[in-house]
Write a structure and sequence with these properties.
Blueprint (H helix, E strand, L loop, with lengths): L8 E2 L5 E4 L4 E5 L4 E5 L4 E5 L3 E6 L4 H22 L2 E8 L4 E5 L2 E5 L6 E4 L4 E7 L2 E6 L2 H13 L10 E4 L13
Antiparallel strand pairs: 1-6, 2-3, 3-4, 5-6, 7-12, 7-13, 8-9, 9-10, 11-12
Length: 178
């Protein structure tokens, strides 16, 4: 029995959920709509206020898919209703970011500036030159974009310079001793 899969998903107000006969789950909310192909080995039960998922057969592969599909459906419902946000912080002298015409321009201490093309479905806002807010309805895409931007200059352990998540703790090392 899957501990994650057996929990029902509560549908918030303003979200409409559909299940097509071909096995495609669709959710539509105020921020947009998303869809997911459901395995034929899983049975999705739609009620007015909740969704529950049950396996049709008992096998190891189906038990693995059960919790995964439940989490994916839950992320779709959260995405179309409230969305997802990742916040990045830039530390370093002269390090800054700004958004110009669909691309993120980063100055990270290299001899050139880095231009990152913002993918469709993602919104990037720089409230300050050192704070980047990445938002969207697709949980996987928001995390992937945040990880890609962070990879341009990961935080280093001696001075803490680089791009890090706002809630990330960078373990600091002691420098050279005389």
């Amino acid at each position: 029995m899957s501990r994650v899969g057996k929990n029902p998903i509560i549908i918030p107000e303003g979200v409409k959920c559909y299940l097509s006969p071909s096995g495609v789950f669709k959710a539509k909310g105020k921020l947009g709509d998303m869809s997911l192909l459901i395995s034929p080995n899983l049975h999705v039960v739609l009620n007015e206020t909740s969704i529950s998922i049950e396996p049709r057969i008992q096998s190891k592969k189906v038990r693995m898919l059960w919790g995964t599909i439940r989490s994916l459906i839950n992320n779709i419902i959260k995405g179309v209703s409230i969305g997802f946000v990742k916040k990045l912080e830039i530390n370093g002298v002269g390090y800054r970011a700004n958004v110009k015409s669909g691309s993120l321009i980063l100055n990270l201490g290299y001899s050139h500036e880095i231009s990152y093309q913002i993918p469709k479905g993602i919104n990037i806002v720089c409230k300050k030159p050192t704070l980047i807010d990445i938002s969207g309805i697709n949980y996987q895409l928001v995390g992937q974009v945040a990880s890609k931007i962070r990879s341009f200059r990961k935080p280093e352990p001696y001075k803490g310079k680089g791009i890090k998540y706002v809630n990330e703790l960078v373990f600091r090392k002691e420098g050279k001793k005389k």
